[in-house]
Amino acid sequence: MERTHTRPTGPRTAVVWAVLREEIDRHGSGMVVVDVGGGTGGFAVPLAEAGHYVTVVDASPDALAALTRRAAEAGVADRVAALQGDGDRLAGLVPEGGADLVLCHSLLEVVDDPAEVVAALAATLRPGGALSLLVANRAAAVLSRAMNGHLAAAAALLSDPDGRTGPGDKLRRRFDATGAAALLTAVGLTVEKIHGVRVVADLVPGSVADGDPDALLAFETAAADLAPYRDIATQLHLYARKA
Ligand SMILES: C[S@@+](CC[C@H](N)C(=O)[O-])C[C@H]1O[C@@H](n2cnc3c(N)ncnc32)[C@H](O)[C@@H]1O
Predict the structure, then answer these.
(1) What is the pLDDT along the chain (243 residues), one digit of tens a residue?
(2) Which atom of ligand 1 sits closest to the CA of residue 38?
């Protein structure tokens, strides 16, 4: 019997899982999933627990070792493959046209060439397959810096073409919904949904997040696809399909 109730549903990931759940419900078990930059398996392992076959491509051997341990502990080692590789060189690492679902969460911010990576992600999908893309939102970074009094960093983020605070920024770029969607449509994908992830979860006092997580979750769910709230979320989640 597959374990299907283990997906995390906290405010940091619930909106993404709600979208993925629709795909899972549509497809049933046995999806072929590729998680590029999938790290230690925060999405991969629950997907495998739900009966799907997940290949995680990641540059970090340490992350992949943790993934392998986590998959074994969850009893799904046979449905999780760990593949060390560079997201910028995805073509040739995973087969083209075979995946039902490709995840690329928190990776486009650090790769050499996001347009090339997105082209490779699209090539990995079978016709009808879906891409789940999660990227850092420039607007949220501007607001959080400004609210914390770091006005020079906020101003730099506003005007920098890549949405960086400067050379010390750990990210190479940040996105807005229009720019991220344009990357996907440029490679022939149809953007079906755009949600904000962590609209207020990183802004509310910790006492609220800890004291009433259900209320926070309900708020995040309600605000996730409503402009302008979506547009100030810490991350943007785009869900796109290959024709
Ligand atoms: C912020 S973590 C995100 C992990 C996971 N996708 C998630 O959302 O929980 C970024 C991951 O991307 C990996 N990574 C960074 N640069 C990469 C690259 N060029 N190619 C493949 N993986 C990369 C890191 O090792 C790390 O595991």
Answers:
(1) 333 434 456 888 999 999 999 999 999 999 999 999 999 999 999 999 999 999 999 999 999 999 999 999 999 999 999 999 999 999 889 999 999 999 999 999 999 999 999 999 999 999 999 999 999 999 999 999 999 999 999 999 999 999 999 999 999 999 999 999 999 999 999 999 999 999 999 999 989 888 999 999 999 999 999 999 999 999 999 999 999
(2) 6
One-letter amino acid identity for 51?
G
Pocket of ligand 1 (CB under 6 A): 37-39, 42, 58-60, 63, 86-88, 105-107, 110-111
**What b/e string do you get for 116-149 counting C-beta neighbours within 10 Å, with b at 16 or more?**
bbbbbbbbbbbeebbbbbbbbbbbbbbbbbeeee
Closest CA to 125 of 21, 241, 4, 224: 241
Nearest CA to ligand 1 atom 26: 39
CA of 74 to the centre of ligand 1 (A): 21
Q: How far does the centroid of ligand 1 lie from the alpha carbon of residue 215, in Å?
A: 30
